[in-house]
Amino acid sequence: MLLSMLQDSTEVLADAISEEKTLSIYKLIMDGGIGGQIIIALLVVLLTVALYIYFERFFTIRAASKTDSNFMNQIRDNVSHGKLDAAKMLCTQTNSPASRLVEKGISRIGKPLEDINTAIENAGRLEIYKLEKNVPVLATIAGAAPMIGFLGTVIGMIVAIHEIANAGGQIDIKMLSDGLYTAMTTTVAGLIVGIISYIQYNHLVVRTNKVVYEMEAKSVEFLDLLNEPI
């Protein structure tokens, strides 16, 4: 009799362990109810947008950060010998934000230095705008995703409380499962999307700042070149 009871207990425990192992993310989402599914779908869309923006901007900024260390020496030689067309051609072939600023400055040679500096600054603002294109969207997603997840938490708790109110004093944990699944899964999903987007945003900001610094350095070097005595 005791052996039979032990066998039954073992089978029940094994079934419970087996059921726990088969619990998947998909099942959690499906058991979360329509409210949780809508919020999870929205978070998936936000994550997809965030990943697309990150990789598109990452490769663009990485390409913009590649500059020839001998670029300014060649510009100096061409400008010093009056070969402005050759200097412009070199800027066009280099095709980087810094080279476009230098090209803008070369096209203004002959005008007052203040006008050249203003033209370079205006071109620099345009280049920075191009580099930062869609990057603020990542910051928005990083802030909005956790709040959307918390919205799912509130919805899930409302569902759970509603089930308790309608239980008539007989509360069954299975009745609360939809609300609890919604509350937990949406919170986790929102935090995951928010954390990923936040890291991506800060990484792009750091990379962009490096390119901006390179642009400023090349601009100052070019202006110093124009100030050199002939």
From TrEMBL:
The UniProt record lists the keyword Transport: yes
GO cellular component, one term: plasma membrane
Transmembrane segments: 34-55, 135-161, 181-201
Keyword Iron: no
GO biological process: protein import
Localisation per UniProt entry: Cell membrane; Membrane
InterPro entries: ExbB/TolQ_transport (IPR050790), MotA_ExbB_proton_chnl (IPR002898)
Lipid bilayer topology: Multi-pass membrane protein
MotA/TolQ/ExbB proton channel domain residues: 94-216
Principal subcellular localization: membrane
Alphabetic keyword roster: Cell membrane, Membrane, Protein transport, Transmembrane, Transmembrane helix, Transport
Family note: Belongs to the exbB/tolQ family.
Identification of the protein by name: Outer membrane transport energization protein ExbB
Organism: Lutibacter oricola
